[in-house]
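Before the break, one more example. Copy the sequence into your notebook; we will annotate it together after we see the structure.
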Amino acid sequence: MKKPADNPAEPFKKALAEATKVIADDPELNVSYTVDPPGMTNDAVRLPQISRRMTKQEVLLARGTADAYALRRKYHDEGTAARYAPQGQMARDLYEAMETARCEAVGARAMPGTAGNIDAKIASEAERRGYGQITQASEAPLAVAAGYLIRQLATGRKLPAGAENVTELWRGFIEDHAGGTLEDLNEKLGDQTAFAKFARQIIDDLGYGDQLGDDPDDLTDEDQDETASDDDQEEPDSTGSDEDDSQEDADASPEQGQDEQQDAAEA
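Here is what the structure looks like once it is written out:
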């Protein structure tokens, strides 16, 4: 009886897993492949499954997802993120999208090869959501556009078509309200604490300052401990880097958030 051929995708999957650990600077990271939605926890990354056929789309999406998660792991500190995280949903979506863009932009500067891979991931997500066909800003989450714009300004790279369409629909609103703050982007990019404060200012500029909550730098140590405890209890099984999940969160914002976004788009 003829022995079945080995899965031709296995060598690639092993190599990608090892590369992900190297980029993340975490040799103990557990990398797996799944048909379920990709995601990241404290010690593991789930990447999109790659079939025996190893189609170009599968390979590009897996590489881009792996690089996005790895860069999040390398450049993102959860404690800092929790300290400055806003309380309201729309503000938190904006904050998460901009932090994801920061990690990817910092990674692109240090490891230019990751930028092209993540471009492919962004293109796939934008196509899946139909971003190339929308004609009104209100049809796409403001948080997604803000993340795209931060990444574009920080890297100087042209965005994939669907992402570019979303960015252009929201660009006028974002730059009209936060253009002055955005001028400081490159100075803040490499420091997560400085960038978190920068992101909170942009959120305020965009009209969602009432969702920021208290300024963490004004809190006492006791107040900070209580806030950190609350954030720990609310922390989900995270996507980590994933722009995909931060975008999904934005897409699933409560009705109030959608109303607020509609008002902003029409402003």
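The chain has two domains: 10-72, 77-216+237-266. Confidence is low (pLDDT under 50) at residues 233-256. Try to locate both features in your own notes.
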